[in-house]
Amino acid sequence: MEDLKTLKGEVDSIIFKSEDTGFCVLMLNCDNDLITVVGEMGDVEEGEDLVVTGEFTSHQKFGEQFKVHIFERSLPTTSAAIQRYLASGAISGIGPVLAKKLVNKFGDDTLDIIENTPDRLTEIDGITVKKAEKISQEFKTTFAARSLMSYLNKFEIETSYGIKAWKRWGNTAEQIIKSNPYVLCIQGVDLSFSRADAVAAKSDIPADSECRIKAGITYILRQNADQGHTCLPLDSLVKTAVSYLDVDEKLIKKVIEDETEEENLYYYDKHGRRFVMLADFYKAEDYIARRLAIMRQISYDNKIDFSEVIDLEEENNGIQYEKIQREAINLALSKGFLVLTGGPGTGKTTTLNAIISLYQQQGLNVMICAPTGRAAKRLSDLTGFDAKTIHRLLEVKHTSGDTLAFIHDENNLLDCDALIIDEMSMVDSCLFEAVLRAISVTCKLVLVGDSDQLPSVGAGNVLKDIIDSGVMSVVTLKEIFRQAQESEIVMNAHKIVNGEHIDLASKDKDFFFMQRLEYGELQDLVVELCKTRLPKAYDYSPIDDIQVLSPTRKGPAGTVELNKRLQQELNPPAAGKSEVKTPVYTFRKGDKVMQTKNDYEILWKKYITEDKTESGAGIFNGDIGIIIAVNKILKTVTIDFEGRIAVYDKQMLDNLELAYAITVHKSQGSEFDVVILTVFGGFDKLYYRNLLYTAVTRAKRMLIIVGSKKRVDFMIDNNKRTLRYTALKNMLMELVEGDDSGQQTLDI
Ligand SMILES: Nc1ncnc2c1ncn2[C@@H]1O[C@H](COP(=O)(O)OP(=O)(O)OP(=O)(O)O)[C@@H](O)[C@H]1O
After folding, report:
1. Closest by alpha carbon to 697, among 459, 454, 478, 530?
2. What is the reported pLDDT for 636?
3. Are 292 and 732 in contact (CB under 8 A)?
4. Predicted local confidence at residue 222, as pLDDT
C-alpha cells in the first residue's frame, strides 16, 4: 500500500462488469492515455469521470493494470461525455438516439435539466410530460445508488456491501446508513461490527449511543450463535458487552430490557438463571417445542400393535428383527413420531428400511431427506429411494436481503404423509423449524441420527435436546450386529465413544495406525499414501476414494498446509492448466475443492442428456467438487459438484477451499471409502472424543490414523462435550410437564 497513486480520467469503455459484486475491468482515458483499471466500482458507466486511488500491478499476461482501492465519481460535464454516458444506457428510457437529441438541444446543461427541471425535456419531440418525469426519476434513483457507493467508498467499504444495502433500502439507503451505520451489520448485508464501528466513529456517533449498544449486543449473540449457542446467560452477555463496548453496565442492561420489549430479543429462564435469545432462535426453538408437544399429544392413545405386519415384513425380507428394532418399527407406525438413534452397525438403516416399506404398504406418501448432498446420496444408496437434501426438499426461495426462506412452509405444505430425516445430528434449530412448518401436524416424522457425532454447524442441539428431554419417543440401538463386528472401524468407534483406548498395533483389518512424530515425516507419509501406496495396492483413486481429514486447519498437520502439499503432488502446475490465485490458495484446473458456506444464490446447471439440462440455485457448506475450467481474464472458476456445474467469480472464491484435506467438522454427514486422519500436535481443545469418533465413522472401507499414539489416547480421554446453550430441551419439558401420555424412551 506504500505506492498508492491517484488517477483522474473518463471511462472510455467497460470490458467486464459483475452485477452482483460490482467488480469491473475498464479502460480509463487519462489525458489520452488508456489505462486498464480493475476493482469494485459498482454501476460505473462509459463517459463518466472517475478519480481512482490504488496501485499499478503487473499481470503476467495482460501487462500493467491499475488496481483500485478507493474511487470517486462525478457526472460527466462536457457535452460529448454526457452524450456517451447517456447513450451507454445508464438511465433507462434513454438510448443513443435520444441521447444525441438531448445533448444537441441542452448541451452541457443536459444532466442538470434532467434532474431539476424535467418539464423542459418535453421541448424534444416525442417526450411527453409523463416520460419526462419518468426519466428524471430514473436519473435520481441511479444517482442515489452512485452516491451511496461513493459514500461507503470513503470508508473503504467495498461496493458489494453497497449493492446489498441498496437492494435492501433502495433510494433511502444512504440516509439510513448515515444516521445509523450499524444497520450495515444486519443479516443480509453482513458488514462486521468493527468496520461499522469505524464508520460510526468517523461520523461522530458517540460510543454510548443506543444504536451502537444494540448492534454490539446483537453482534455478541450472533458470534456465539456461530459457535452453536441459541442463547446466552444474561450475566455473561452483560459482562462481555461491558468489556467489548467499554460502556456502563446499567446502559447495557437497559438496552437489553428495551430490546426484549421490542421483541428483538427474548428472555428465557431455566434452572433459576436468565438467558437471552435472539428473536429468530427463540421463535425457532419455541415453535419446535410446541409442534413436537402437539405431535406427542395427537398420538397419545395410539398404542396399536403392528406385530402381524412386522412378522410379514420379516418373512418378505428373510430377516428377523431384534426386539428393539420391532419396538422402533411399531412406534414409528403407531405414534407417528420417532427418534431412531445409535452408533455404527447397530441396525438403524435396516430398521429404517422396514419403516419406509411399511409406511408405503399403508399407502402413505413417504419423503426422505438429509442435511447435506453427500448424506442424501448415501441415504439414496442405502434405501433405494430418492433422498433429497432438506434445502432441495423445501425449495429455497429468494428474498430481498438474502435471508433464507423456503417455497414450502405453512401456506404451502409438502405433499407427504411421512417424512424421514437422516443425519439429524447435523440439523440446526432454524432448519428444523422450517421443516416442521412445511409438514402437516399429522405427517409422521422419523428422525435418524447418532447424537454422539459432532453437533450441527448452525446454532442449536436439536437431536440431543429432543432425546435428553425424555418426553418424546426415542429408540436407542446399542447392540452391534455380527456383520458389523467384522469391522475394526465399527468396533473401535464404539470403544472410542465409550472412552476405551484402542489397540493401535493391529494391522490386518480396516483400521491402521502409523506413528509419525515429526511434521515433515507426517506430511510425506500422507502424500505417499494418497499418491502411490493406496492407489497401487488397492486401486483407490486419490481424488475420488481417499479423503484426508484433520481436526484443524492450522499448522503443519492442518488442512491448509496438507492441501498445498497434496495439490503440488496430485495436481501440479502444467502447461495448459490455467490457475487463479487467492490470498490463501491457488486454484487450478483439476483441483478438488469444497464450498465452505451455504450460498443459496449460486446458479448451477446439470446436464441430464446432451441437449437436456436442469438448472437450480444453491451450493452448500461442505459440497465437494472438481474444477473443470479456469478463466484467467475474468478470474472465474467452473466447478463440477457431482454433476451440478457452477461458475464462481472472484468474490465467490473466498468461500472455496482446496479439499484434498478437509477438517473433521466439514466432513460431517459424508462417508469416504478411505479416510486418512492426522492426529498430531495442535491445540488441546480441538482434540476431543466426539471429534475422533466423528472422524473414524466417516470411513467405509479403510481408516488410517497418522500421527501420535499419545495424542489419540488424549482425544479419547478428553470427553469435553462441547457445551451448547440452548432452550429446546427445557421448553419441551415445560410444555409436557405433568402430561403422562406414556411416551417411551427405550434404551436397551
Ligand atoms: N435384525 C437383523 N438381523 C441380522 N442382521 C441385521 C439385522 N439388523 C441389521 N443387520 C445387519 O447389521 C449390519 C448393520 O446394520 P445397519 O447397516 O442397518 O446399521 P446402521 O446402524 O445403519 O449402520 P451405519 O450407521 O454404520 O450405516 C448390516 O450388515 C445389517 O444387514
Report:
1. 454
2. 87
3. yes
4. 93
Please state the residue numbers annotated as binding site for ATP.
345-349
Cite the beta strand spans of 226-346 per DSSP E: 231-233, 265-270, 273-278, 337-342
Pick from 315, 317, 349 the residue to mutate for probing ligand 1's pocket: most ligand atoms within 8 Å of its CB: 349
| Mean pLDDT for the chain overall | 89
- The most confident of the ranges 154-163, 383-392, 563-572 is 563-572
Segments of 636-710 assigned E as strands: 636-641, 644-648, 656-658, 661-663, 672-679, 699-707
Identity at 678, one-letter amino acid code: T
Does ligand 1 lie within 6 Å of residue 449's CB atom? Answer: no
Q: Is residue 55 a contact partner of residue 65, using CB atoms and an 8 Å limit?
A: no
Indicate whether 747 pLDDT > 50.
no
Closest ligand 1 atom to residue 320 Cα is: 1
Other Cβ atoms less than 10 A from the Cβ of 33: the count is: 9
CB–CB of 337/295 below 8 Å? yes
**Ligand 1, pocket-test mutation among 350, 377, 670, most atoms within 8 A of CB:** 350
Which range is least confidently modeled, 328-342, 530-544, 734-748? 734-748
How far is C-alpha 391 from the chain's CA centre? 12
* pLDDT score, position 302: 64
Do the Cβ atoms of 115 and 82 come closer than 8 Å?
no
Residues 6+ apart with CB under 8 A from 473: 331, 335, 337, 338, 339, 743, 744, 745
Residue 508 three-state SS = coil
174-224 pLDDT, tens digit each: 999 999 999 999 878 889 999 999 999 999 899 999 999 999 999 999 999
Residue 133 has pLDDT above 80, yes or no: yes
The pLDDT of residue 353 is above 90: yes
d(C-alpha 356, C-alpha 643), whole Å: 28
Q: Identify the residue whose cell numbers are 453482534.
A: 219
Among 344, 386, 389, residue whose Cα is nearest residue 365: 386
3-state class (DSSP) for residue 587: strand
Ligand 1 site, residue 342, Cβ cutoff 6 A? yes
Is a pLDDT exceeding 50 seen at residue 553?
Answer: yes
The phi, psi pair for 191, rounded to 5°, reads -70, 145
Exposure string over 619-645, b if 16+ CB within 10 A, otherwise e: bbbbbbbbbeebeeebbbbbbbbeebb
ipTM, two decimals, is: 0.97
**C-alpha to C-alpha distance for 175 and 159, rounded to whole angstroms:** 17
CA gap 594, 626 in Å, rounded:
9
The whole-angstrom separation of Cα 625 and Cα 639 is: 6
pLDDT of residue 60: 60
CA 222 to chain centre: 15
Phi-psi region of 535 (alpha: psi -120 to 50; beta: other; left: phi over 0): alpha
Ligand 1, residue 322: give the atom nearest the CA: 1
Q: What is the mean pLDDT of residues 321-349?
A: 93
Give the Cα separation of 507 and 215 in Å (integer): 56
Q: Say if residue 368's pLDDT is above 50.
A: yes
Residues facing residue 68 across a β-bridge: 54
| pLDDT the model gives residue 160 | 78
pLDDT of residue 743: 47
Q: How far is CA 6 from CA 22, 147, 227, 326, 607, in A?
A: 20, 20, 43, 76, 48
